[in-house]
Structure formats: C-alpha cells, structure tokens
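W.,

You were right to be curious about this one. When I first looked at the sequence I had no strong expectations either way, so I just let the prediction run and decided to look at it fresh. Below is the sequence, 298 residues in total, followed by the output.
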Amino acid sequence: MKSSKTLVMLSALIAVLALVAAGAGLFWQDGGSPFSFTTLRGQTVQMYGRGLYRYDTSFRAPVLRGTDAVMLFVCIPLLVVSILLYRRGSLRGGFLLTGALACFLYNAASLGFGAAYNSLYLLYLVTFSASLYAFVLAFTSIDLAALPAHVTPGLPRRGIAVFMFVAGLSPCVWLIDIVAALVQGHVPQNVASYTTDVTTMIDVGIITPAAFLAGVLLLRRKPLGYLLSSTLLILLVLIGLVVVGQSVMQALDGIVLSTGQWVAYVIPFVTLSLVAVWLTALVLRHLSDSATGLASDS
C-alpha cells in the first residue's frame, strides 16, 4: 500500500503529544493532598488533590494515571512501530496504525471531555484533533476494493463476527448504574463531581454500534468489515491493558474494588482483551502485501 506523508507526520505528532500528556499525568507530583468537595447536587466527594489530576476524584484520578502508564509504555511504542511499518508500505502496518490511532483518539476524547480541567487542556485539544484526522486518513488509506485480494484463505470470519457481537454488548454494563439511578430518581454515584458520564457516551454510543456493524459486514463478506473489525480488535487489546493498568493504580492508591466491580467491570474487559489478542494475531497473519485472493474462509 502507498503511504501518506501527512499521516506519518500527524501520527508522529500524536506520539510526541501523548508522551508529554502521559508523562505529566503519571509523574507530575506536588505537595497537595486530598480534600472534600460538595457537588452541585449536594453530594460530598473526595478529590485527589495532587498532581495533574488534583481536581479529579480520588476514584477517577488513579484510573487516569493507570491509563497514562499503559499509554506511555505500551501504546506509544506500538504507535511508533506502526508508523515505521506503514512507511514501508506494509498492509499490516496500515491496519496496526489504524487500530493504534483509534486508541489514541479514544483516550484524547476521554481526557478532553471527561477529565477535570487542568493545565494540559490545550494539549488534549490538539491531540484530539490530530488523532481524529489521522484516524480518518489511516482508515481511508486502505483500498477496500483491493482488500479482499490481500486476505489469505482460512480467516475465521464467522468467529470474529460473533466476537464482535459479544464485544459490542460488553460496554452496555455501564448502563446498569445509569438505569438504576434513573429508577431511583438520582444520579449515578460515579458521576460525582463531573457533569456527565463520558465513558458511557463513547462506549455505548460509538463502540457498541461499530462492533455490531463490523460483525454484520463480516458475515456479508464486505471489505469494510475486515478493516472495521481489525480496528476494534486492536482497540480492545489496548483497552484491556488499560483496564489492568487502571486497576493496579487504584490498588496502589488504596482503592479496593468490590467483588461486583471486578466481575462486572474488570474481568469481562480483560477476558475480551485476551481473546482479541488471539484474533488480532489471526487477522494480521492472514493479511498479505501481495494480492493472493480470498479463496475461502470460515
């Protein structure tokens, strides 16, 4: 495939911006301390009180720092490797780059819309904009008309489609607290000092429909299904690692998750991520830079 210099430059810029943001979030410490805050709804919550995320809650700040750790030590190196492969004209590199950029777009949106305002807001803004347009460029750089000829026989198309349907349902777990709060006439507890639940909006509003669309397109043997499903698989792999990083950072900060939280929010996403690792490897193995023709699949 032919590489785009604009995409390479944007991706490199994203790597640098993410390096600054993740490094600051993870390592920036000051002499602050936790403090209590009364929200507009009269709820008293504990704020983190230190570092970049001093105005985020004591529950959310370790989540953000855990994400920063994974972005710094896993996602940024993956992005750099993907850029290098993509520059060489590798189709696998193009797929990896698209999936990696989806993760950076997801994280930039989460920070820009969901984290409490801090001194890196403008950096989040630029990262979000660059990630959005880089992702669009990467996604559209794959020649869908020619793609089937580069998929070798044996790709478990139906199995990946079923996994897409299951993965698409998983974000709906966030709706449990929201529906319960609506029934009881109050706001979800995790909203705390924030104005809304950005994670649910992104996951259920974007990721879930995209996963179902990918599954349907795969079953119909549409080229877009191969690209969309692989993008979501790579995103799921990285999100699983992020969930692990978040849980570890919360534990280090003394936050003990309940059995219900582990069962509902941690174990399912980590399990999906492990399966996604295997399926991503299968997809990449069945991609060829030379046209071979899609003879048959399952």
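Here's what jumped out at me. The mean pLDDT is 93. And, maybe more interesting for your project: Residues 5-285 form one domain.

Coffee later to discuss?

I.
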